[in-house]
């Protein structure tokens, strides 16, 4: 693989693009929103400049990595030369399917189409293309440059070659890859959503404050981040979409906490909106 295309310039997309360029791949980032692309570019360049300032890489390496990234609002332009296309748009099945259908029309025959979904079926997404054997789910974790894991989830028709090439790409980024059998929520999201939702229920029930519940989980279970702090980082709207999908596919124990639903309706989406379970203003 030489060229990677990332569809979506939000939190996950920019993290994947940064990691791809840092690993030496030519990288193209696509988003229909020009202001989001500009924000993505500023973020990535700032991250490389900070790495130079902190002595992690030299100036030449930083400038070289920045030069390997291109930005575009045109989907076809972003993916027509790509060896691997990674879709990193919101967890909305119809949106993902629409993007895969469009990509299928103009990416080269050897290209792999990957979805960064954290819960949804790669089989269902791949079935909308003429190349299900070259479709896969690669679930990265936030923040992508720091998190070491990629869940690799095959669809029903995914070929072994696609799995091997995807894992090789993950290793080139310095990540650990685990192969997970397709099932709603995979491994990490299925457990993480359950823990986070229960923490929200405890807040609603008055078991403890947001801060104390997070501290209890961090110190008692040795988690690096509390479940409510993590939900704010992921985005409460994203978490709600995940919970709704798991509730639909796995049943009652994944019913979204009423507090989560209320916060999203109020526009309290977590860190990205300035307020969620914590106030970031």
TrEMBL record:
The record marks 139 as: Important for catalytic activity. InterPro entries: 3-OHacyl-CoA_DH, 3-OHacyl-CoA_DH_NAD-bd, 3HC_DH_C, 6-PGluconate_DH-like_C_sf, 6PGD_dom2, NAD(P)-bd_dom_sf. This is 3-hydroxyacyl-CoA dehydrogenase. Belongs to the 3-hydroxyacyl-CoA dehydrogenase family. PANTHER family: 3-HYDROXYACYL-COA DEHYDROGENASE FAMILY PROTEIN, 3-HYDROXYBUTYRYL-COA DEHYDROGENASE. It comes from the Bacteria. NAD(+) binds at residues 8-13, 31, 91, 96, 118, 142, 272. Coiled coil: none annotated. The keyword Flavoprotein does not apply. It comes from Cytobacillus firmus (Bacillus firmus). Keywords: NAD, Oxidoreductase. Residues 185-280 form the 3-hydroxyacyl-CoA dehydrogenase C-terminal domain. GO terms for molecular function: NAD+ binding; oxidoreductase activity, acting on the CH-OH group of donors, NAD or NADP as acceptor. GO terms for biological process: fatty acid metabolic process. It holds the Pfam family 3HCDH.
């Amino acid at each position: 693989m030489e060229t990677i295309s990332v569809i979506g310039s939000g939190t996950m997309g920019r993290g994947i693009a940064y990691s791809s360029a840092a690993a030496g791949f030519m990288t193209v980032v696509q988003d229909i929103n020009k202001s989001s692309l500009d924000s993505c570019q500023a973020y990535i360049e700032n991250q490389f400049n900070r790495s130079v300032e902190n002595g992690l890489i030299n100036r030449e390496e930083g400038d070289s990595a920045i030069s390997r990234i291109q930005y575009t609002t045109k989907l076809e332009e972003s993916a027509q030369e790509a060896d691997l296309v990674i879709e990193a748009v919101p967890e909305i099945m119809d949106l993902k399917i629409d993007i895969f259908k469009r990509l299928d029309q103009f990416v080269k025959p050897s290209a792999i189409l990957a979805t960064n979904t954290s819960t949804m079926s790669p089989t269902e997404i791949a079935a909308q293309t003429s190349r299900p054997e070259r479709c896969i789910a690669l679930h990265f974790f936030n923040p992508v440059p720091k998190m070491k894991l990629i869940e690799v989830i095959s669809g029903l028709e995914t070929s072994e070659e696609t799995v091997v090439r995807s894992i090789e790409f993950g290793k080139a980024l310095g990540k650990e890859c685990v192969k997970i059998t397709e099932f709603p929520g995979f491994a990490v999201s299925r457990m993480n959503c359950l823990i986070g939702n229960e923490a929200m229920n405890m807040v609603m029930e008055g078991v403890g404050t947001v801060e104390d519940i997070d501290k209890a989980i961090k110190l008692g279970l040795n988690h690096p981040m509390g479940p409510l702090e993590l939900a704010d980082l992921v985005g409460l709207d994203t978490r709600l979409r995940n919970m709704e999908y798991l509730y639909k596919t796995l049943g009652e124990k994944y019913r979204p906490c009423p507090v989560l639903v209320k916060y999203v309706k109020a526009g309290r989406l977590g860190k990205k909106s300035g307020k969620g379970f914590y106030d970031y203003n």
